[in-house]
Design goal:
22% of the residues lie in helices and 26% in strands. By secondary structure, the protein is α+β, with helices and mostly antiparallel strands.
Length: 101
């Protein structure tokens, strides 16, 4: 299996949506733009948000097995994917890339 590099590309907060719909919470996302993780043997890297991992796992699995070309040419690099976590108030975008050993 290939390793998959996971890079935090963008993190945003929709304050207007939070104000309208979200109960106040003390602790939010710990991800930092530019932060990198490596998935080995399709395992969640330490420190990577569990919820984000669940969103990206099918793509990590496919890339780790040497696949790619999602949605018939969606990405310029067929061995990559841009995936966001499922937090509608604070979405984080992650670039996934298969890396050679």
């Amino acid at each position: 299996m290939k390793r998959v590099k996971i890079t935090v590309v963008r993190k945003i907060h929709y304050a207007d949506l939070s104000q309208l719909y979200e109960n106040a919470i003390e602790h939010t996302c710990d991800m930092v733009e530019g932060q990198e993780f490596i998935s080995i043997d399709c395992q969640r890297p330490k420190g990577l948000c569990e919820s984000a991992w669940q969103s990206m796992l099918p793509f990590v699995d496919e890339l780790a097995r040497g696949g790619g070309n999602f949605f018939d040419g969606w990405m310029k690099d067929p061995h990559s994917a841009m995936i966001s976590c499922n937090d509608g108030f604070r979405p984080v975008s992650f670039l996934l890339m298969a890396v050679e050993d």
